[in-house]
Amino acid sequence: MPLLLHYVKYRLLEHTADICIEAYGKDINEIFENSAYALFDRIADVGTVRKKGAETITLKARSQESLLVDYLSELIFISSTMRLLFCNFSVRVNGLELSSTVMGEKIDRRRHVLKDDVKAVTYHMLELNIERGYARFIIDV
């Protein structure tokens, strides 16, 4: 893994219609954390979100790739139904099970800079490479 990736949480890759994200990490937990961070950095300016409350998420899946999609999808669902933005993500993956605590606050349009209206995470071009320290996924906007 190039040295630069130790300092960069994610980068955007070119895609015709949607947003392609490549998130990095030293292990699967950090890859999931930085994937969630990247997702919410596309939804809003994460720097404007405070850690006022916490939500706990537990999931099981058939594969680690599905676990990533399910995790990000659950975050989108919680965010849209509870009108929350998240800025801090703590993830523990054990095989095909995930437990996560995310922190954030209610959306305040006077203070938060909202960006993209993210609808879903897709399986199209999904790649999770733990050995090389990255996940690549597309979000539907």
Describe the overall structure:
This protein is an alpha+beta fold and 141 residues long. It contains 2 helices and 7 strands; from the N terminus they run E-E-H-E-H-E-E-E-E. The protein has one domain (18-140): Archease, Possible Chaperone, Chain: A, domain 1, CATH 3.55.10.10. It has helices spanning 28-43, 64-82, and strands at residues 10-13, 19-24, 53-60, 84-94, 97-106, 120-129, 134-140. A hairpin with a 5-residue loop joins strand 1 (10-13) and strand 2.
What is the name of the CATH superfamily? Archease domain
Rg over CA atoms, rounded to whole Å, is 14 Å
* CATH top-level class: Alpha Beta
State the domain count: 1
Order of helices and strands: EEHEHEEEE
User: What level of helicity do the residues show?
Assistant: 10-25%
Count the beta strands: 7
CATH-assigned fold name: Archease, Possible Chaperone, Chain: A, domain 1
What is the strand arrangement across the widest sheet? Answer: 1-2-7-6
